[in-house]
Amino acid sequence: MDWLLCDVVDRPQGVARLMLRWLRAGHCRAALFNLKLPMRRPLETVQRTLRALEATGAEVRAGQLYHDREEITVYARRRPQRPGG
What we know:
This protein is α+β, with helices and mostly antiparallel strands. It has a single domain, classed as Rossmann fold (3-Layer(aba) Sandwich), CATH 3.40.50.150. Helices cover 32% and strands 27% of the residues. Helix 1 packs parallel to helix 2. The mean pLDDT is 87.
């Protein structure tokens, strides 16, 4: 599958676990998903989640849209495998 789109109302850790599973397993090349921000420690939660995604070797971008301050939108794309590597 090329793209995985996800807008699930769940804790950010639950959504991140699902996205990590799909990216690591190679089930999708890219994922676009929303992380609902928790009331407590939102910045810490987002930073931890983005670091975990980056640890897979994925290119990761995140932004908070002006009209919805209670979630961030994340784009993660697996980097192409190099031949022989």
